Amino acid sequence: MTKKHVKPALQEVVEAEGHLIDSHIMEQIFDTVVEYHGRFEVEHFHIGKTNAEPSRLRLRVEAPSSADLELMLGQLLGLGCTPVDGSDAVFAVVDRDRCAPEDFYSTTNHRTLVRRGGEWHAVENQRMDALIVWQDGKPWARRLRDLKAGDEIVVGMRGIRVIPESKERDRLAFAFMSNGTSSERQVETAVRQTAAMLKHAVENGQRVVVVAGPVVVHTGGAKPLASMIRKGFVSALLAGNALGVHDAEAAMIGTSLGVRLSDGRQAEHGHRNHMRAINMIYHAGSVAEAVKQGKLKKGILYECVANNVPFVLAGSLRDDGPLPDTITDMNQAQDSYAEQLRGAGLVLCLGSMLHSIATGNMLPGWVKTVCVDINPAVATKLSDRGTGQALGVVTDVGMFLELLDKNLPEVK
Ligand SMILES: NC(=O)c1ccc[n+]([C@@H]2O[C@H](COP(=O)([O-])OP(=O)(O)OC[C@H]3O[C@@H](n4cnc5c(N)ncnc54)[C@H](O)[C@@H]3O)[C@@H](O)[C@H]2O)c1
Predict the structure, then answer these.
(1) Ligand 1 centroid to 112 CA: how many Å?
(2) What is the pLDDT of residue 167?
(3) CB of 381 closer than 6 A to ligand 1?
(4) pTM higher than 0.85, yes or no?
(5) Which in 28, 70, 109, 261 has the greatest CB count within 10 A?
(6) CATH assignment of 9-85, given 3.20.20.70, 3.40.50.2000, 3.30.70.2690, 3.30.2290.10?
């Protein structure tokens, strides 16, 4: 009788800690194991007994092949499961600029720790789609294009711990963020909650970054946004060329894409007004110079210059001009956005699919984000980037800003 050879199942024991139940992480962990044709056995589960106490899970997982196990572990890692083998992360040295070894580890936007010398180290500059480089005794998230020959980077999936965001437990934020995206929620409620978040951020010295599209100007939102900047609620403004062009047009000529903001009627020969605005800024040399020379006397960019609030205008294929301030080198524009987003506590994304989603991709998952857009798909896309950290408001952005500004006091 021939002995039947039974291939042993490939196994791993992983651990996860956090608000695993009410943030629905536990069910995602189980679903992932099944998705990769695996089996799981809960070796230990401790439910957090208070608001603050985390739950703890120890899970034995099995997969039919090592390829399945690797894929499964990669997914589980993103859900906060770390293999319990106590090993350090594996590092490899990059031999050419911008070229990583095939098995490089690619980051998520969640808080990540790397184990080296038996100690866990938090990754600096956390963002998604980056690699982890060891530098100056710490791990850093670094984009592929910034990789240099000689950099030591994390490869494989050992010695990495990811901490997924869980629902906020403080009452204000919890009530606010647990609603997700809705077009049915009363706009007034979303406005009041956003105002409370803004006040909280400013009182606690957190940076508030506003990302805005030209529709803010078209819908009459320039005035309230300018007022928010003047009152001290904005630490930096990120936008494209169009916001700058239409804001300058509105401030200097009183129209937005040729439409009179006073009565909504098309101004005669108004179609050339945005080109006139660009021309005026060219004559001055830059937006700041136009303010200095008294040509630009109000509006969003005027308030930025007058109140020393940095603004970044990132270029695109659609741009007219562009304004002299618009950064047309895309890598440079991304770097300038990332620089302003560093350390942000709250980000408001207002009516720009391009710039809102680009910003979402640069942010760590724990930064609170409010996205206002008339299109639910844009608000949802932004909300999906972090459980309980992002709110989508589906409404007209001009009306939203008008109400928001009314809810904000003078803080300066
Ligand atoms: N003249 C120019 O230079 C010029 C003109 C237009 C766009 N651009 C550039 O093109 C790029 C893309 O432009 P974009 O960001 O405007 O386009 P986008 O398509 O990325 O985003 C526009 C967003 O506005 C939303 N929206 C429309 N009406 C709204 C309303 N009333 N309230 C709330 N949201 C509303 C849409 O749903 C959409 O998500 C930018 O970089 C921009 O600067 C340049």
Answers:
(1) 34
(2) 60
(3) no
(4) yes
(5) 109
(6) 3.30.70.2690
